[in-house]
Write a structure and sequence with these properties.
alpha+beta; Protein Transport Mog1p, Chain A; twelve-stranded antiparallel beta sheet; 15 helices; about 40% helix; globular
């Protein structure tokens, strides 16, 4: 059986569209309850870290690229004006939608004045002005410090929640409980049950076709990871399962994937894989990665990283 390196291990090298701090009340108010994943990024923490900058340069997600370009188009400098970014994917009847919330000092009057100068006219949705931006995005300013962005349909879903026409994140205790366990780091993310099961299937690659995995996949619950750049790079992922047997089985499958990848890894990649610890504790699968800035930057520029970050 051929095993690829688990994408879970890749998360510590290239988080999903990811790039801490806790969520502001204005952010929680616009995120719908039926959440699949939330990713939160301390933008300043990334900017001040050599490893954070290397990671951002190599795997800058499309959503963030579009957002930064769009902001620059209306005179907002992401490197100076944005403090925190949150991305939320949530379920609606038609599938999944994604919104982003940026926190910073935006000065509503100045931003609106720049938009008028560029003759960008908003679409009005109840009492909110939704401005079209480059890259197919739209944005609305919730106040002087919070900007909501995404495609038009996603923005409307989020504004519906804010205006009391739907349930917000605050009503989803399973997700908010997970958030409280990770929201102190530079990057953190939480996934719901279905999102975690999909992530694990992708992470395990060919191993997800084994009978062992098929027997336990429905016992995989929520998950959360956190990543800190304060002193080198520290990554911790925790997957909650229904029992100790499920967690132990996942541990075995992931360890096999890491061993297989070591067979063809470069010296730099082997060092990284040696720093990857996969363990289980009661009903939780735990994955930990830690290294210094120099080794992490080398890893970011490796062929392994290029392969897993596509």
């Amino acid at each position: 059986m051929k095993y690829g390196i688990p994408a879970l291990a890749a998360l510590c090298l290239a988080p999903v569209f990811s790039f801490g701090s806790s969520l502001a009340s204005a952010t929680r108010a616009v995120i719908p309850a039926d959440i699949q994943q939330i990713i939160n990024v301390d933008y300043r923490g990334m900017e001040d870290s050599q490893s954070g900058q290397a990671l951002k340069a190599r795997v800058l997600p499309d959503q963030l690229k579009k957002f930064e370009t769009a902001l620059k188009g209306v005179g907002v400098d992401p490197d100076k004006d944005v403090e925190q970014l949150t991305f939320a994917s949530f379920r609606v009847k038609s599938g999944l939608q994604v919104v982003g919330i940026a926190q910073g000092d935006f000065a509503v009057n100045k931003v609106v004045a720049r938009l008028k100068t560029k003759k960008i006219k908003p679409a009005v949705y109840r009492d909110s002005a939704m401005y079209p931006l480059d890259g197919g995005l739209s944005m609305t300013l919730l106040d002087n410090y919070n900007m909501l962005f995404g495609d038009s349909a996603s923005l409307k879903s989020a504004l519906d929640v804010r205006d009391g026409l739907g349930s917000s994140l605050n009503s989803n205790s399973a997700i908010t409980d997970m958030i409280s366990s990770v929201d102190s780091d530079t990057i953190w993310s939480v996934l719901d049950e279905k999102g975690t099961q999909e992530m694990m299937k992708s992470a395990l690659g060919d191993a997800s076709n084994l009978a062992d995995y098929n027997a336990i996949k429905n016992r995989i619950k929520n998950s959360a990871y956190k990543m800190d750049f304060g002193n080198g790079v520290k990554f911790n992922l925790k997957v909650i399962t229904s029992d100790a047997f499920t967690a132990a089985t996942l541990k075995t499958l992931l360890q096999a994937g890491v061993l297989y990848k070591k067979m063809n890894a470069t010296p730099t990649e082997k060092v990284a894989l040696d720093n990857l610890v996969v363990d289980s504790d009661s009903g939780a699968l735990k994955l930990k990665f830690e290294t210094d800035d120099r080794k992490f930057v080398s890893l970011v520029n490796s062929d392994l990283f290029a392969a897993i970050s596509k």
